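Subgroup meeting minutes
Present: P.N., E.W., G.H.
Scribe: E.W.

1. P.N. recapped why we're keeping a running log of single-chain structure predictions: easier to compare across weeks, and new members can see raw inputs and outputs side by side.
2. G.H. added today's entry (549 aa).
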Amino acid sequence: MSAGTGVAPETARFAAVERELADMARVLAALPRRISDIPALQATRAPGASALREGQRVWTYSELTVAIERCATDLAALGIRGGDRVLIVGENCAAFVAVLLATARLDAWAVPVNARLSAREIDAIRAHCAPRRVVYLTHVSPDAAAHAARHGASEPWNPAAIGDLMLGCSDDECRPEPVSEDPAMQVAALLYTSGTTGDPKGVMLTHRNLLYIARLSSALRMLVESDLVYGVLPISHVYGLASVCLGTLFAGACVHLEPRYSPQAMLRALAQEGITVLQGVPSMYARLLDFMRSSGALLDAPALRLCYAGGSPLTPALKADAERAFGAPLHNGYGLTEASPTIAHTRLDAPRDDCSVGMLLPGLDMRIADLVDPRHGNALEGEPGELWVRGPNVMRGYYRDPALTARTIDHDGWLNTGDIARRDPDGALFIVGRTKELIIRSGFNVYPIEVESVLNAHPAVSQSAVIGRPVDGNEEVVAFVELSPGGTATPEEVARFAAERLAPYKRPAEVVILPALPTAATGKILKHRLRAMATRSSGVPDQEYHHVA
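Output recorded in log:
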């Protein structure tokens, strides 16, 4: 059985919401001071309403508020002060939400990281942010327990009975950052992102940044208190934190927390738990469809009314397959960590047949700059160019990297997204690629997403990633492909399929079939790893992949 589509919101009602949100000054004035205020405000209105669901346990807004207060009291007793950093190593659970919001309540900076990161990645973040304390959510994550053991953390901590956690030793070398006089402008979360380079960057997001996106996410999804939102996107990632978690709590709705994604768990939750809103990255939907095809499992989602994709490009083939399976539109959106994260998404009253990321969020400004002279010239209407945005969601900057901050945000507050976009006359935004990923082949521009869309249309291909490889003053196209479970195709067959559908300069010079594309915990494909794989002279052992040149 496919998901029910529900009743679409009336166009007039949705237009009224858009008009209300467009009054940015009023929206900002009505926001709480801190992200930690969100549960407390809901607790005054409906203390017994469900806020978080973790396994069989349900946390009401009253219980979550008490847990945050007790965690904050304990953290203060442990020496946490405003401007300190608190590193939180874990996976999705109620304790993650409580500790993060308790840290923010003290005007300290929460630094949430996914415990599934490698030891090298965790240690690099720890060294860069120099936290006063590290909290390991060992009760929900074996990986967090392994990191705690590796770091010699031996102090148990269980405030408000939220779980058996471990604390790292206090770092007396930690130097607190200045605390803003206006709590809304204080950094609430320091989120690390590798971007396209693989080098971690600490993105400083203020309370106002996150609250603004939570407010808009809540309103534009038309969330109500009875909604149950699937919360498998990591809270350590800005999509899972701002849109899924904070946006849901802002509406007084409930988040169904899952520590890790699996198609089986998602199908079970959709069928049995009453999930009404599904938010995910494209690879999550691709894996679900692959599992259904290979296992014969059926999709039963009687309460589901909304499906969203974001975090990475959505291809036409995947969108079409997902919509057939769900019997409902798959809405698309776009953002980046530096924008807290949302910049645009399709509207509920206007689903699209194409892969546009929809309309700009209310209150934001954008311009599409000429690729040759991005800081001064603008691209012609309808032509691709470098996307710049400005609004209350733009980060404060990169932690301890003023030079990179200055290169990314200009003196007027415009953020260079690094993405190539075009805008249709109706205002719909299309993301064409990234400036750093643009491939110039024999003088022609090749946008990886276009090649990936063709490759993903092959019946045996689950997902793909295309990168450029320098060769003798030129670049060539290299395609990495992951096959669907049970799918069979040789690199030569995939290459022929692409050649029949692409201009000669866009065709891959090499097709590499991998057992699985490297991804982050969110499901985002890590192209910097593929780029290194494609350019290293020694290649990869034959048993790891098959390729055709």
